[in-house]
Amino acid sequence: MRRQLPILIVFVSGVFMVIQYFIPHESFEFIYEYAMDWIIIIGIFAMLLGLWSLTRASVSKVQAKAPGWGFSVMTLVGLATMLFLGFYKGNKSIAEGTFFMDLFWYIYTPIQATMFSLLAFYIASAAYRSFRVRTVLATILLVTALIIMLRLIPLGPISGVNQWLASWILTVPNMAAKRAIWIGVGLGATATALKIIFGIERAYMGKD
Amino acid sequence: MKSSAFRKLFSLFSSLIFLFLFYSPAQGAESSAPAWFDKNRVNVFIVLALFFAFVIYFINRAQKGKSLFVRRIPGLDAIEEAVGRATEMGRPILYISGIEDMDNLQTVASMIILGNVAEMAAAYEVPLLVPVCQPFVVTVAEESVKQGYAKAGKPEAYNPNNVRFLTSEQFAYASGVNGIMLREKPAANFMFGSFYAESLLMAETGFSTGAIQVAGTANIHQLPFFVVACDYTLIGEELFAASAYLSKEPKLLGSLKGSDLAKLLIMIYLVLGVLFVTFGIDIFLRWVFVQ
């Protein structure tokens, strides 16, 4: 029963989600919306599981004095601080000008932006490696990338030709390859969904 | 699932569909009555029904013992190689399942691969680290890893602290994963699932640590980053084919062949569509539009 019940729930929910797409009746729309609300509710409860997992792993690391345990202390302090400040004054805690929001705007947001801006350097190093002329394919990649990048720069008399070529590359071979991948992804995802709905694929459910 | 139970499920599924398609309380009523079938989506329904039929046909065929050929996927073959390398180096394996929740099929596919990776890691006795971005995924990841360890006959080797939630925030998660890569120096990094801008941050950091990297995603804009920074990349549908390929289970391989047949038909349809449109007949073009 421990095995059959989840499979039955998955089957019923999966079949409902498939058929509701074809039925515009308001009763189906209502059930669909209701199910979507449940996803949000389950997600909120799942956050508690996440907090438990994070705390358990960090505390274990600190207790064992494992290498880098100081980072786990920082994680726990950060978690406790934000939780306390968030709950401290109820809804007023998240009003502008509170200590909670100051931490959010002046510590969390700049760190987030820093991580994002690092991407530019990573792109440069990755591009350097991929554009090295070693094989015929790498050379084609380099020439194509140059045409695409140079379309943004005024090149005098060859600007028009370059623009046309870049546009052709993006809308013909590039788009064809993208669509081929999209079709494959769509079919692969549908096949996976089907396997899950019919209980053929059960590995994600865990132990027998 | 036994084939008889499978057939029953299929019959129930088909009956439900036909019940909802052909039973309409609004028959004969005013046209303003709510509709029970969206006629604008007939084309989607036909394609979906055909696809389902292909998949079920090939699953039944596989169950009867007919051999099904599946082409080699180097990225999936490399998983065992990477686990072996981690064993030789005495360093852990890092598994990243993307940043989306369980409602994303890529995450589901990733969890299925995780079970296979965990089984290999347990067999080779290599620590498997699984930092997770969504709290709900933690429980599924824990179960997948536990199942992998149990299948390998080493349930006692499972360490619950190795499957851990980091944060739901995209770049905070990326920095957490990068920290693990730099501190723990995993010998193999697996990145399977739904990734966005954090993909290159993690893949480049993994590259800098010298780890063997295998990645896979269906998010098309992240594929170039993985191709550049990883040793092997699963492109799009290969991610969904992984469970069948790794387990070699006939029922799963059957579904793979069903997808392949559907792809063949789409290709034929595209060629016919191009020919028909070239000669000014647009029936093929109009039929595929979904309103």
Question: Which properties best describe this structure?
Answer:
heterodimer; A: 208 residues; mainly alpha; 7 helices; 77% helix; extended; B: 291 residues; alpha/beta; Rossmann fold; 2 domains; 6-stranded parallel sheet; 59% helix; globular
CATH class category of the largest domain in chain B:
Alpha Beta
Query: How many strands of chain B?
Result: 6
Read across the widest sheet of chain B, the strand sequence of neighbours is 3-2-1-4-5-6
Share in β-strands of chain B: 5-15%
Runs of chain B in which pLDDT lies below 50 for 5 or more consecutive residues are 22-30
* Average pLDDT level of chain B: 86
pLDDT average of chain A, as an integer? 89
Low-confidence stretches of chain A: none
Helix proportion of chain A: over 70%
Structural commentary:
The complex is a heterodimer of chains A (208) and B (291). Chain A has 208 residues and is mostly helical. Chain A has a domain at 90-130. Chain A has seven helices and no strands. Chain A has helices at residues 4-20, 26-63, 69-88, 99-130, 136-150, 159-171, 173-197. In chain A, helix 1 (4-20) crosses helix 7 and helix 5 crosses helix 6 (159-171). The longest helix of chain A is centred in the first third of the chain and has 38 residues, at 26-63. Chain A is extended and about 65 Å long. The termini of chain A are close together. The mean pLDDT of chain A is 89. With 291 residues, chain B is α/β, with parallel strands linked by helices. Chain B contains eleven helices and six strands. A six-stranded parallel beta sheet of chain B has the order 3-2-1-4-5-6, sandwiched between helices. In chain B, helix 5 (135-151) links the parallel strand 2 and strand 3. The radius of gyration of chain B is 23 Å and the shape is globular. In chain B, 48% of the residues are buried. Chains A and B meet through helix 1, helix 2, helix 4 and helix 7 of A and helix 1, helix 2, helix 4, helix 5 and strand 3 of B.
